Amino acid sequence: MRTWFITGASRGLGRAFADAALDRGDRVVAASRTVSPDDFDERHADRLLTLNLDVSDRTAVLAAVDAAVAQVGRLDIVVNNAGTLSMGMVEEFTEAEARSQFEVNLFGALWVSQAVLPHLRAQRSGHIVQVSSIAALGGFPSTGLYSASKFALEGMSEALAREAAAFGVRLSIVQPGGYWTDLYASISATTPLEVYAPLRAELERQWADGSVDSEPRLAAEALLRLVDSDDPPLRLLLGSMVYDLAFDISRQRMDTWAAWEQVSRAAEHAVAAPSDR
Questions:
Q1: Which of 140, 175, 200, 245 has a CA 20 to 30 Å removed from the CA of 25?
Q2: CATH assignment of 3-242?
Q3: Residue 155 and residue 1: Cα distance in Å, rounded?
Q4: Cα–Cα distances in angstroms (integers) from residue 130 to residues 61, 134, 166, 268, 276, in the given order
């Protein structure tokens, strides 16, 4: 039996991850701003610990992780799933709105990672899973700040994966496509500028057919396969749409780099340090 620590566990993908872990007989520490044992199947009560936690509060995160370890003994899998989505054109974001997007999506995952690492290092094992997004593959109109927060999460996590590996701790970044969660219902939005009305109208036409998303259960099944692997990848794409998009964006970038190769190479010519000349 392994012990999971899952943030944003009261709903959406986090809830699906928690249910899947409990159903297989594992122990789960379910953390969320609002979460209760009553949210889960009572059959799992003896293997469930719920924590009311705001991951943007570093002091609270450090205390919560220490308290959880004191109660359950150890952590084996840590899933940084808590996230929030603000829609709006980059120019429209206020400072408060921009910072709020990063507080949960980047800093929340950072604080949890910092809190669990001393415990994982001491036991020389563990697996941190950072739940990113299709938005980390590229920037798209109206999701620029969300993409920025997920790009930042992935940059931090790539470095952390290399640092933690020296202590036997693994890290994987999961990039999900669309799933039927209540993330869409909790979206916040900027105050729109009239100048972007034509672009918004074009986006609405593109989205007119609506979203065809998947059941969170499928993401949970993929996560179980990931954490059960003896050789888990640094990145895992979830869904055919995000898989295809990742390859399309990568090919476009490689084509552009190749087209500008001469300029890129001409910008470098090694010379001695100025003090040595």
A1: 175
A2: 3.40.50.720
A3: 32
A4: 16, 13, 19, 36, 45
Nearest-CA neighbor of 120 among 65, 192, 202, 50? 65
Residue 39 burial (C-beta neighbours within 10 Å; 0-12, 13-18, 19+): middle
User: Which residue among 56, 86, 146, 157 is the active-site one?
Assistant: 146
Marked catalytic residue, from 10, 32, 113, 150: 150
196 carries an active-site annotation: no
User: Angle at CA 193, nearest 5°, toward 191 and 196?
Assistant: 125
Judge whether residue 211 has pLDDT over 80: no
The answer to whether the pTM exceeds 0.90 is yes
172 given a catalytic annotation:
no
pLDDT of residue 36: 84
The residues, ordered by sequence, that sit 6+ positions from 245 with a Cβ below 8 Å of its Cβ are 134, 137
At 207 the three-state DSSP class reads coil
Helix spans in the chain (H): 12-23, 58-72, 95-102, 109-123, 144-165, 197-206, 216-228, 240-259, 261-266
For residue 180, pLDDT beyond 70: no
Angstrom distances, CA of residue 198 to CA of 9, 33, 156, 191: 38, 37, 36, 15
First to last CA, the chain: 64
Selected catalytic residue, list 10, 32, 132, 149: 132
pLDDT tens per residue across span 9-35: 988 899 999 999 999 999 999 999 988
Q: Identify the pLDDT of residue 148.
A: 97
Active site residue 146: yes
Give the tokens for residue 136.
Answer: 């980390």
pLDDT tens digit string along 68-105? Answer: 999 999 999 999 999 999 999 999 999 999 999 999 99
Beta carbons of 65 and 116 less than 8 angstroms apart: yes
